[in-house]
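Input sequence (167 aa), recorded before submission:
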Amino acid sequence: MDKIAQLRQKLQEAVGVTPNLPIMATVIDIQDDHCSVKLTSGLELTDVRLKATISEGNEFMIITPVIGSDVMLLSSTGNLDNLTVIKVDQVQKIEIRQNGLQIITDSSDKKVSVKNDQVSLIAIMTDLATLLKQLKVFTPIGPSGTPLPDSIEAITEFETKFNQLLK
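Predicted structure, token format:
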């Protein structure tokens, strides 16, 4: 072995890394936190991870690519049976779960979900719309009636808009 190869080997041993170049691929299927891809050579690979480690924990961030989009893969061992997606060109969904908080953006239904262990943003907004539709205030002659029809119409429009965005 020549001196450069020996130096490279000693450096790899000292640092604990193996040179590993990214691999370009196209997503052909999604299965929860894994995907199947097709390499430019035509080789199809399954069980490519969408997050660095697959664990049973409830805390993670996962970016799900669009089927048919390009991704960049990397292997922690240098083998094709241990690939993880490290870059996504087109995102279908982003899901973050941490300490009871859950945030999901989903381009398939064009909606966002924000919730924790106790409540969700959609539930709060629904409660607000319901409250506004039934709102009564005290007047000198007693409690008022429910809001006028134009106010109910505006509240309903507000409700429609947040239902188009939130899930």
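Checked by second reader. DSSP finds three helices and eleven strands in the chain.
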